[in-house]
């Protein structure tokens, strides 16, 4: 089981749930594919039309930025924690 942590800013897409339990493991792509099937509104905020991570979304697997560890091909083990952090604009 993988835990996907959803920030408050995106919980409207998960009916207010902040911790999603996902059975898929292996790669971040597999985890996000299950998220897409179960929470389609959330995945539209995370992936673009080509299925790639949106540039303003940061995803960490066990504390490591997935963009530094293989992107969607980042290894995700059982009991891993995936954290989603959208960029925040300010001014």
UniProtKB/TrEMBL annotation:
Pfam families (UniProt xref): ThiS
Source taxon at top rank: Bacteria
Listed Gene3D superfamilies: 3.10.20.30
InterPro entries (alphabetical): Beta-grasp_dom_sf (IPR012675), Mopterin_synth/thiamin_S_b (IPR016155), SAMP1_3 (IPR054834), Sulfur_Carrier/Prot_Modifier (IPR052045), ThiS/MoaD-like (IPR003749)
NCBIfam families from the UniProt entry: SAMP1
Name of protein: Molybdopterin synthase sulfur carrier subunit
């Amino acid at each position: 089981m993988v835990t996907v942590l959803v920030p408050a800013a995106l919980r409207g897409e998960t009916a207010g749930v902040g911790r999603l339990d996902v059975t898929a493991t292996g790669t971040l792509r597999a985890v996000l594919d299950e998220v897409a099937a179960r929470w389609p509104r959330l995945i539209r905020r995370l992936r673009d039309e080509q299925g790639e991570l949106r540039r303003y979304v940061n995803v960490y697997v066990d504390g490591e930025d997935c963009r530094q560890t293989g992107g969607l091909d980042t290894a995700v083990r059982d009991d891993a924690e995936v954290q989603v952090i959208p960029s925040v604009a300010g001014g």
